[in-house]
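SEQUENCE-TO-STRUCTURE ENTRY
===========================
What this section holds: a protein sequence and its matching fold, both as plain text.
Tokens: labelled as protein backbone structure tokens, with as many entries as the chain has residues.
Question of interest: how does this chain fold, as expressed in backbone structure tokens?
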Amino acid sequence: MQKETISILGCGWLGMPLAKALIAQDYPVKGSTTNEDNLEAMRDAGIEPYLVWLDPEVNGEDITDFLQSDILIVNIPPERRDDIVEYHIEQFSSLIDALGQSPVRSVLFVSSTSVYPALQREVTEEDSVEPEALSGQALLHVEEMLMQETGFQTTVVRFGGLIGYDRNPEKNLARMTELKDPDQPMNLIHRDDCVRIIMEIIRLQQWGEVFNACCPVHPLKRDYYRRAAEVSGIPLPSLCSSEAPSPYKLVNSDKLQGALNYTFIYPDPVAQLG
């Protein structure tokens, strides 16, 4: 039996290795990029490549062929611009219109834990109320838009801070003059876990859900960067603690671990540094 065809909107740092992993499992994959220079590499990887901008300010973009799939994975963050919320909503209004004319019946939306305010406690999927960050506001609006649609089912995955490969703390250490809020707990997740979680959602047909996805261990910034300094040989910058407790949130991923019977590849961000 042929597996579902999957379209990935956004074959970048996460989308590209995800596409390769899906192809290795015999899924036919279409992928999009906004950079024409990436098309050949995508084609070489076995991806059917498309240029897709999803720009509401450009009329007439036809993504009909790209959306001739069973499953759509959306992996495009809000653009950094003054009208970030309004623009992201417009982008997805046009995408939802196109989905209504497509065979797609399942959507996986890659979101972020920025949808949660710093509540000074553990947060679960029900705590996404009035995000402080504009990017979180944009993502939460789009989550709601997609979940309200009846022509397809949407699952939202809210990833924590993405780490692994070239996204390592050494780069941050090299340009730090001081480490602010060293007692603030971190919500992180390795890219390998992100890829595997998405694949498990597809395999288990977990549609119509909202999941947090963060390492179950939440190291303090001081401990994470101290270990990174030891491993890299880069000096740890001076710690800059504020008088008032730093705002924080601890993102709980128990729902995801239970629904997928999922065990993290890298449960502890400090341990994965080596």
Notes: The first strand starts at residue 6 and ends at 9. The helical segments are 15-24, 39-44, 84-99, 134-148, 169-175, 191-204, 221-232, 254-260. The radius of gyration is 19 Å. The mean pLDDT is 96.
